[in-house]
Amino acid sequence: MTETATHRILEVPGARIAYDVRGPLPTAGEPPLVLIGQPMDASGFGTLASHFPDRTVVTYDPRGLGRSTRSDGTTTQDPRQQAADLHALVAELGGGPVDLFGSSGGAVTALAWVTEHPGDVRTLVAHEPPLLGVLPDAEHARAASARVDAAYQAHGWGHGMAAFIALTSWQGEFPADFLTELPDPAAFGMPAEDDGGRDDPLLSGAAAAVTAYEPDVARLRATSTRVVLAAGIESRDIITWRTTHALADRLGTDVAVFPSNHGGFLGDEFGMPGQPEAFATRLREVLAEG
């Protein structure tokens, strides 16, 4: 099967959604494999997609990110709205069910999607969804996350990103005063000067609805979709490892442990490669277990 991606546009209310298809539609065997992120767009999935030459692989840019544009007058990244966009995308592909891998905020969108439209997805692998509300220390986690956004608004990208790295690398529960004293950006190789920008999709508050999303546990337990929660072994005890396990406890399921870290599927897309070959092998195993 060719690995060449065909670029397409889907018109939905308030947005033009850019997506890519690698392989034939309709498929003759296994259903399409859809890979989604948030705020990461399709550009982060090239390496992972290349490890599935036998599958039709679909990637997309969430509305307002990457190549996708929006005209709905907001920058908010709402998992339920993105779920509606993906529901329309699957209909455009010829209907479900598809197999689905969601990473980070994309895993949150994926959970919202299978809650509302379970017939669209056969198996969901939700990798490290950052759902702050499921943590036992949710109040402290939300406060720390708000301090990240405040650092960005007050001092710019370098300070905001340094605070974000401190947040996402902390092991265990957050103390009440976490990030009340901000780290030095230089300690993380970040610039201290303020470039004046305040529209970063990760730090501007646009993604606040993602981390604030409250999964409907009863509906997820009852869904016809096979839901697999997953986390990278190198993420042990950091925030997204803990959110994944906390949600698994609520659902009464186990967590599938994957190689590497939060971005373990990445190749050289952003200069921070994980272990994409081993990651893809594990994803293939988990999908086959269904």
From TrEMBL:
Q: Which InterPro entries match?
A: AB_hydrolase_1, AB_hydrolase_fold
Give the highest taxon in the source lineage: Bacteria
Q: What GO molecular function annotation could you give as one example from this UniProt entry?
A: hydrolase activity
Q: What is the protein name for this chain?
A: Alpha/beta hydrolase
- Whether Hydrolase counts among this entry's keywords is yes
Tell me which residues make up the AB hydrolase-1 domain.
Answer: 48-143
Q: What's in the keyword line of the UniProt record?
A: Hydrolase
Specify the species: Cellulomonas shaoxiangyii
Residue ranges under compositional bias (Polar residues)? Answer: 71-80
Q: Where is this region: Disordered?
A: 60-80
